[in-house]
Amino acid sequence: MKRVPEGLAEAVTGFTGARPEAVRPLGGGDASAAYEVTLDGGERVFAKAAPENMPGALDAEAASLRWLAESRTVRVPQVHGADERWLVTEHVESAAPTREAAADFGRGLARLHSSGAEAHGCPPPEGPRDAWIGLAEMRNEACRDWPEFYRTLRVEPYVRSLVDSGTLRPSESETITRVCERLDDLPGADESPSRLHGDLWSGNVHWGSDPQGGGTRVWTIDPAAHGGHRETDLAMLQLFGCPQLDTVLDAYESEAPLAQGWRSRVGLHQLFPLLVHGVLFGRSFATRAVTVAQEALRTL
């Protein structure tokens, strides 16, 4: 076996009970190195190294995966084990998107959300309150209701950061503040908390092979799970596009209809990821959030 990162072989053996025979680096990760590991019995697993300067990130991801798996709704890679240095999960082969898999995913996502959460803003059981979304810090803490949660934990912290860094002007941030003041009046704002994936952009929707029945199935990866509003997951799914998106959304609505006018609120629920991207990548995303807020004000 070629030289492997320090501690990887020991972690894989400890979590799976099998010895690694081959290790292949994988690309595409923003925060940490990842590897496909072939075990001595022929099975392959996925291993992710702890990202630098992101304490608790692997604990948060492992807790998120377990919480989603517990619902028995959407497919997530099985967690073999996690510690402060490594996360080891099931490996999923890639496959081409299909309409059947998209419809199955839409129905499963609706059932995931319906499985519920203790409160808006709550972390997964055994998950840390101080978590991460991509490379950005994210606080999970139970709130009174969704408007309070979305305003205080998903919008205001990132707006403050953008203003403090000079990325947004105070006058621009006021537009977003006015939107937050009207959240209580939105249709569906009083819905019970849903169990969210939390970072459901298209890159975390993995079209993979079904190891049991064959064919293609959707696996959700890299979650930042918490209790929240189900429209936020759906809005994230639409932010950068997704294969078979209309089929996913139609199947979702057939399983669990959304509050009237939900399509007009997509931008409002995209404020959070846009602000996060503004913090990470600069003014173009931040000003896009302002534009989305201006559009939301016209419809509220």
TrEMBL record:
GO function terms (MF aspect): kinase activity
Domain of life where this protein originates: Bacteria
Keyword Transferase: yes
Keywords, comma-separated and alphabetical: Kinase, Transferase
Pfam family membership, one: Fructosamin_kin
SUPFAM superfamilies with a match to the protein in the record: Protein kinase-like (PK-like) (SSF56112)
Family in the record: Belongs to the fructosamine kinase family.
Name of the protein this chain belongs to: Fructosamine-3-kinase
